[in-house]
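Fig. S4 source data, part A: sequence.
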Amino acid sequence: MNRLILLVVFVCSFGINAQELALSDYADGTPTIGTDRSNSTLSDEYVAQLDGLSEKNLAKQLRKKGAAEKLIEKGDEYFDKMWYAEAARVFDLVLEKTEAEHTPSLLTKAGDSHYYSGNLEKSYTWYNELYQRYQDDMREDTFYKFTQTLKGTGKYRRAAALTKLLRQKRDEPLKELKKLNVPTWKGAVNVKIKNLVINSQYSDFSPMFHGSDIVYASAKDSSIFTTRKYKWTNQPFLDLYVSKRKNDEGDLYGSRKFSKNINTKYHEASLAFSPDQKTIYFTRNNYGKRLKRGKNGINHLKIYRSQYVDGDWTKAVELPFNSENFSTGHPTISKDGSKMYFVSDRPGGFGQTDIYVVDILENGTFSEPKNLGRTVNTDAKEMFPYVTENALYFSSDRAMGFGGLDIYKSEGSDEMFSVGINLGSPINSNRDDFSYIIDQEGTKGYFASNRKGGKGDDDIYSFAYTLNQNEITGTVQQATTGEPIEEAKLTLLDKHGSIVNEALANTEGKYSFRYLDPTSDYSVLAQKEGFEKDSLAVTTKENEKIEVSQYLREHRNTESEEEVFEPNNVYFDFDSFEITQGSAEELDKLVSVLNKNKELTLKIESHTDAIGPNAYNKYLSDRRAKSTRDYIISKGVDPSRIISAVGYGEERLLNDCANGTPCAPEQHRLNRRSEFYIIQD
């Protein structure tokens, strides 16, 4: 996850640094005046040698008087230079191998170092310890990065809870927490993604169409000589590469450097082409003969332009709306070539980085930059825009996405775009997903991600959308007469017994469930008052319609009883499906009723509060239903007497404590429950 792109300022509070290649003041490896610690008592070589020592010899070295203090000083030196990969190694040695006090400063820098260099698992270790020890003293930016590591390591529920605490601490409205139910990509299309062979062990990202080719940024080391390293991540500097598209599936081959006139010894990354493909706009460090720094000592990013003349690219020149004192990058060009959209942390924006637009005038000049406004930009980071004729795609780390950067779509054109909608899974993951581009047909494209399972740091993935024709259609009829049963209730359940969808049969007894997962096991429960229920197992195929029929028999006893049985205090602790002692005592009463009345059967329905993502709550309630069932069975009740054990998540709250509504803990607790239906034939 050593991703590289919108530098220093673009990374200040979100460290997963590829898309944010945080070009620090030390991008060339040379510290600025006033921060050089050349008198450090430890050399870089000494620190490197520690990694090669045996555990015994390492322990001996670290027991020497003052060793921990000197290592902390060296780690601070690396951290100040933004050499985060090196700093992380040193801080780990101190925290794991010495008796040094785990101070707030040390834990914060250790967590930050791993966060910025892309190791979220290790970052979580130190942030979590910091939170456990010094929660009240944590800075807000550190608290925020902690929530990002929680999402990035799959701990969504805890991330949601801490995000709520942070918003309360800032005295911000909680209404945005209604976005906890992040959409997954279920609907009219299926998505197939593929990791590409051109990816390296380093950061590969920002693909862009260029005729039949794809131009992209990479930190791969293609030099036969020793390559200079970017100390933030210990990776080579970024260059632009070009590959050819191999087939309709989006495979790429034959990577080579794009142009010696554009690639330099510093970073070149996110790019765009004019409609005629003869002008390239790209992101580069601000430099002349050497790196230039703004008033704050930071080397910022700028957008450069080059023309294709006589078979080669001309020397790049910077655009007039760049600045020495803030960053400008990530260009994308409208399909008619009249507008450029880009990212900047210039003053006056809504968040850390915002998306702006300028007009490209006929004489090659530009209008004044205009912020795209609140429908697109938030108080977080918006990055990597890509514009089509009727939509703007971009990445953002705004509240309660899947984790890290997520890809969003805003419909519209010119300067008027709708509120961004999360593209969901599998395009987005719990890591960083960004630099999304899509073809004119709107069916194929590429994006970058540092999700697990990749070949290196950031990888480029191809994607293809296909129509989702997976459907179950059926009819419900009377078993004796064959007459259709109007308004029969159909419930679609997945293989875990969780409800996927519900429907009512029409006047002809027909129904359908559309947009289902391929080659997946479902069951369809058909029921109608006065009839016996019928459950049918169905397995979908690959993009096909499955037709089924169900026949219901009239109930032998239309006066059968079905009543709700609600023992007291069958509640669950927050984020838990374990049966508490108090709940066990109440369940024992239920078991006693069942043992005395052998003709009774039971349905179990379990629920959650509205804190956290809806998908997770559905999973948690299902676990609660299963643990309730298992407890009752463990007390001697025949499993066949338990008709169902289903979790409904937060769908059936007992009060008004929905997402974003402030409620006391006891009010939320009332929703964390199991309910029981005793049925007597």
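Fig. S4 source data, part B ends here. The two ends are 60 Å apart (CA to CA).
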